[in-house]
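#struct-help
A.M.: can someone run this one for me? Single chain, 171 residues.
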Amino acid sequence: MVIWVIGLAGSGKSTIANIINQSFLKNKLPTVLIDGDVIRKIFGNDIGYSIEDRLKNASRIRELCKLLDENGINVICAILSISEKDRNWCRENLSVYKEIFIDIPISLIQKRGDREIYSQYDKALISNVVGKDIKFEKPNHSNFIINNIGSKEDFIDEGKKIAFSILENLK
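D.P.: on it. Structure tokens below:
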């Protein structure tokens, strides 16, 4: 099984992925947590942040997830996943694919101070920022959608409910 946790930078992907990972590990399920930024480091930060480089990183992650999935290891993946084409590949090539979309406006991420990249983009200090000059294609078929507009406690509770739901469906 691969659980694909997607959303903009600062949306809360890592938080939800960690909640689900802990639930799986607590239930003694063989599980690996993958983060898009960690994969970049594993490959020696050999790519940048252009649309082409982002798609290349997503391809690497998809293939790694497929390998782990084929070997009976559950994967929880926190990734921007900007393309519906990538997500469709996952639906077609993984044994069980669950998608969790964390929806939050960039303005709220900026207000919370969760990511500097948006304000750096607004000051023309950087480019290639998903949600600004790189389009983020909102998913068409997510299994779960979390609107991260409330409190952090509500957001964490929602993550726990999703983890419980996924685990219940495994039984």
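A.M.: thanks! Strands lie at 2-6, 31-35, 74-79, 97-103, 144-147.
D.P.: also worth noting: The first helix runs from residue 13 to 26.
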